[in-house]
Amino acid sequence: MTGTFHIYIYRSGSDARGGAASGAHARGGAGAAGTAGNDRGGAWPAGVPRGAARPAQDGAAPAASPPPARPGEEPVVAGIDLGGTKIALGLVDRQGQVLAGRTLPTDAPSGPAAAMDRIAAAVRDLAEEAGRRPQAVGVGAPGPLVLPEGRFAGTPNLPGWNGFALRDQLAARLGLPVAVNNDANAAALAEARLGAGRGAEVMVYVTVGTGIGGGLVIGGRLFSGVNGNGVEIGHTTVDPDGPSCGCGNRGCWEAVAAGPALGRLATERLGPPPGRPGGRWTARELLDAAAAGDERARAVAEEYARLLGIGLASAVNLFNPDRLVLGGGVMARYPLLAPAMEAEMRRRALPANLAAVTLVPAALGKDAGLVGAALLAWDLLDEPAPRR
Q1: How many Å apart are CA 129 and CA 296, to the nearest integer?
Q2: Which CATH superfamily hosts domain 15-33+75-195+364-388?
Q3: The pTM is what?
Q4: How far, in Å, CA of 325 to CA of 266, rounded?
């Protein structure tokens, strides 16, 4: 017996100005309510500034009002790119310019509460040094997450953080509205509005590094799914009998084609790297060797690029984008990987969809996640205040 299986994706609302899609973020809990900061010389008042609390939508925690900017001061927000090993944060204006920034270690084993303490202290220090008070905070964090509260839901890169409500905990420490989304979604939003995806009607962003993540932006609006995990393209199955994945499945595209998979493939094909008997290749070592003209390394890179192309074909078939943007650490070698990767994608994707899509490297580099997180914060500020 045969039949037809259809998948439909509906997006609530028709506003394409660039806000995040419904459910992608919500106003964060402020903890205690009080008065906004004063205008003494420092950018951040003594103690922690507390905005007057407003009722939040849909039963979420009370939302903090942002502290008013001083006369003549251009408003800024704080963007935070939270990774498994490091945290990048910065003050960002409405044009997406990072005015001041810093990086600190995640120190995941110390636990999420300690990490939130370090982040809050770093945001306050950065505001003091720059003389600018952030109006809100946006966070891009590794998934899976449960939105809008930004609760970790078994994130492989942050073991022991499961169930921690990032949004509310950070808002309580800073007294500011906080928006949270998946880190790949945040980077996708930045590339769509400010980077390689500008002008696209449907943009798919794929990031390839220690994992593979994805984001979908339609008409300037981020599509996150019901609870924030709508475009986990790295966890689509490409080999049912393939290697185990951190998500618990087998043969995910991430397990087969993320950076660590390239290191394993290189070690299988080439043996130990030169000068390291018994050692294992890393993705960077293999790609550097291939770029330097090592023919054996180049052959492995081409084999790996075809694995990337298989997943990209699925993205083209599923979402029918006019722009497919590739970012992440592995894509620093985009020119090396692109020919075999694109050839495999074109061999497998639907011709009609291929005719519409352009494959391009990301433009914002390592700042994409931080800037995208800041855009989440700006979108949060631009939302109308909830009705009482």
Answers
A1: 50
A2: ATPase, nucleotide binding domain (3.30.420.40)
A3: 0.82
A4: 26
